[in-house]
Design a protein that fits this description.
Blueprint (H helix, E strand, L loop, with lengths): L2 E3 L2 E6 L21 E3 L1 E2 L6 E2 L4 E2 L10 E6 L10 E7 L2 E5 L11 E2 L17 E7 L8 E8 L3 E6 L5 E4 L7 E5 L2 E5 L7 E4 L20 E4 L8 E6 L4 E5 L3 E5 L7 E4 L12 E3 L2 E6 L2 E5 L4 E3 L6 H6 L9 E5 L2 E6 L10 E6 L4 E5 L4 E6 L4 E5 L6 E3 L4 H4 L6 E4 L10 E14 L3 E9 L3 E8 L10 E10 L2 E7 L5 E15 L1
Antiparallel strand pairs: 1-2, 2-40, 3-34, 4-5, 6-33, 7-8, 8-9, 9-10, 11-12, 12-13, 13-14, 15-16, 16-17, 17-18, 19-20, 20-21, 21-22, 23-24, 24-25, 25-26, 27-28, 28-29, 29-30, 31-32, 32-33, 34-39, 35-38, 35-40, 36-37, 36-39
Length: 500
């Protein structure tokens, strides 16, 4: 809010929050951005996003599925985590904890007796589990992968060999719930869910005498051609998603299973479904939605209103979402020129903010305890490690911009002139920022070359003066440097008033 002082209007932007793109475009809260790309607002300070790190050597073709197998009983700590990538009809393994850093992917052999020389589908649903040892010893950690074309296979954690898992149907999606493996998205039985015997992902045989000890199936028809597309454990229940409906499955034994349809619709883009504590995020055609245990409903869509309007609807089946470190990351295709996901929208549940990155193109995310990985939709065969807080990591996104809402400072009856901007910028090395005051008439640009020392108490306040007269304006802050910088203490704007 602007205040009046001896013929001057003054606005203080005390901190920076995130996007807010809905409602009155004039005189909105200046702490929010009407447009922003590749910016972070950590602790209310404004700074560019951190540059992500190319983690691995490339494969020759796109990585369409990235999975993680953790080998609990493996002797070497650095080799316990294994990344499994699906690319060009094959599976590859890489150990990110190798020392020195890994330089090559390991091609995994096809299962014995496999018909053909490759897998048909590179999009796998996967679950980490275990199987009994052959003889004495610890269980064998395995990665179960399934799709509706190839069926189910497993990758053994002890030797990284693959095996075929015989199942009654081929599942497009799998999940673990109540110590059983569940399968759905069955092409010839779209309303069916099947489950394995408890504690044994290789046993899909029904037990007639003791049903709770065997495998089984459940049908939940909707008579509309829809199909189960995603399965996620949600606390002590399993949530089964269709494109237009959601069911909650309660109980831990076949005799107790109960289906309850939920309210509010389904998940049309199943790859965007991600569990976050007591809620589940997902993307709808109009923006982000959440399931809160009772119903599906829109989730703060107004804050990223323009971003959702820019989504290319014909490509949303490829959108991908995940939750990591209290944030929901949503890779989406923006604008008519998009050919794949070309931006990531981020919701920070701690600071309750939305921000957009358009310097990354994500095919699929893989969140782990220690890192967030993603496969590139722009450059085939690459895996990157997501980075945040450019001030700490030491590398920044090469292009970023922050745009405030339009404002007339609350004085519609006054011509404004002689705008002054006070700002304090910290830099890790010499860097250049651009400040643009855009009015209804023209734009005025000031370039600020910030030299060292400019950190902590040594960072000096800078006064930037913009000439010209105007009725309303907005401020753009941008940079094309990879040097980390941040604005501390907010901004102050002053302008002279001339009443009509």
């Amino acid at each position: 809010m602007a205040t009046l002082n001896e013929g001057q209007a003054r606005t203080n932007i005390t901190n920076f929050i995130g996007l807010n793109q809905y409602g009155n475009p004039l005189n909105g809260d200046p702490r929010y951005a009407s447009e922003s790309r590749n910016m972070e607002t950590i602790g209310g300070m404004l700074q560019p996003c951190a540059a992500c790190t190319l983690l691995t050597p490339p494969l020759d073709h796109p990585i369409e599925t990235l999975a993680r197998l953790y080998r609990r009983w493996y002797a070497t700590e650095a080799e316990k985590e294994v990344l499994i990538a699906a690319s060009d009809g094959q599976l590859y393994a890489l150990i990110p904890g190798d020392t020195p850093a890994p330089t090559v992917w390991t091609l995994l052999d096809l299962p014995d007796g496999w018909a053909g020389t490759e897998y048909v589908n590179n999009h796998w649903s996967w679950v980490a589990y275990e199987i009994p040892p052959e003889g004495e010893g610890d269980p064998v950690d395995v990665l179960l992968l399934s799709n509706a074309d190839d069926g189910m296979i497993l990758v053994r954690g002890d030797d990284l060999t693959t095996e075929t898992v015989t199942t009654p149907k081929k599942f497009g999606v799998i999940a673990r719930y109540a110590e059983r493996i569940w399968g759905g998205a069955i092409p010839d039985d779209p309303d069916m869910l099947m489950y394995s015997a408890p504690y044994d992902p290789l046993d899909w045989t029904a037990d007639i005498e003791i049903p709770e000890d065997g495998a089984g199936e459940i049908n939940q028809p909707s008579w509309d051609g829809d199909s189960f597309t995603a399965l996620h454990q949600f606390g002590q229940q399993l949530i089964a998603f269709k494109r237009t409906r959601i069911w909650r499955i309660l109980g831990t034994d076949p005799g107790e299973y109960a289906f309850k349809e939920q309210y509010g619709g389904g998940a049309p883009f199943y790859r965007t479904v991600a569990v976050d504590g007591e809620r589940i995020f997902m993307l709808g055609t109009d923006g982000v939605r959440i399931y809160d245990g009772a119903a599906v409903q829109p989730f703060y869509q107004q804050f990223a209103y323009t971003v959702f309007q820019r989504m290319k609807q014909t490509l949303l089946d490829g959108a991908f979402g995940c939750v990591w470190n209290n944030k929901y990351y949503l890779a989406i295709p923006l604008d008519s020129t998009a050919t794949a996901n070309n931006a990531v929208l981020i919701y920070d549940a701690v600071e309750n903010t939305w921000l957009l990155r358009d310097d990354v193109a994500v095919e699929a995310f893989l969140p782990t305890e220690s890192a967030l990985y993603y496969t590139s939709a722009a450059t085939p065969g690459r895996i990157w490690q997501w980075q945040e807080d450019s001030w700490t990591t030491g590398t920044a996104a090469a292009s970023c911009e922050w745009v405030t809402p339009w404002t007339d400072l609350g004085f519609k009856n006054c011509e404004k002139s002689g705008l002054e901007l006070y700002v304090t910028v910290e830099v890790a090395a010499a860097a250049t920022l651009t400040f643009t005051v855009q009015t209804e008439k023209k734009s005025k640009i000031k370039t600020y070359a910030v030299a060292l020392p400019a950190t902590g108490k040594s960072a000096k306040q800078k006064l930037l003066r913009f000439g010209g007269s105007f009725r309303m304006f907005r401020l753009k802050i941008s940079s094309t440097t990879t040097v980390p910088w941040r604005i501390i203490g907010g901004l102050q704007l002053l302008t002279e008033l001339d009443a009509d």
